Amino acid sequence: MLIAKVVLAAGQSSRFDGCKLIADVGLGQTMIEHAVNTLQALDDTPVYVVTGAWHKEVARALAGYKNIELIENKQWSQGLGHSIATASQTVFKNKSFDGILFMLADQVELKVAHLSELVTGFKRNSSRWCANYGERLGVPAIFPAVDLSQLASLTSDRGAQQLLRSSSEVVNTISLSSASVDIDTQKQLSNFIAKNE
Q1: Other C-beta atoms within 10 Å of 182: how many?
Q2: What letter would DSSP give residue 24?
Q3: 93 phi and psi, to 5 degrees?
Q4: pLDDT per residue as tens digits for the range 60-79
Q5: Cβ-contact 7, 48 below 8 angstroms
Q6: What pTM value is reported for the model?
Q7: CA 190 to CA 167: how far, in whole Å?
Q8: Pseudo-torsion of CA 56, 61, 62, 64, nearest 10°?
Q9: What is the tens place of the pLDDT at every residue in 155-195?
Q10: What distance in Å separates the CA atoms of residue 150 and residue 146, rounded to the nearest whole number?
Q11: How far is CA 112 from CA 17, 35, 79, 109, 167, in A?
């Protein structure tokens, strides 16, 4: 079963005051490298990285990486939904996948084991799978290929939330409070690094 792996990294990171994607998150790696390394450790299929506001910076940071493909979303300002749509259209046009896994570049506490749990669930039951943060559902999430038309037509900044909250489809979840941790400000980054030292 083939699952496309996508890192969503197109946003402006306006609250960070700069490009957070190339900020050092500890262990000598940048935020975007951490996300790519986590997905690459899952299996040997390519990692797709959706870039946008900081396309050149991300491309430079990942210049030494093999087995990745950058997807530039020139309309990144239209929000997360547009990045998901752009990725879905590109990925499924190039190859036949059974599903597509999305994670955010700034989900710094995600581990390979967390993503493996989602993948294992999807391979057992190929429907929608996502993280349950405790109060809400969100990414990382895997959507089956039958969701392509819905994913490819997303436009809002809420990303795939509407699909995960749909009452007409089964959504399987894994409890994953660490998925709710993301980095939006310089202070959050320094707190994260201090906690992990």
Answers
A1: 18
A2: B
A3: -75, -35
A4: 999 999 999 999 999 999 99
A5: yes
A6: 0.94
A7: 39
A8: 120
A9: 877 778 888 887 678 899 999 888 888 888 989 988 888 88
A10: 9
A11: 29, 10, 27, 10, 29
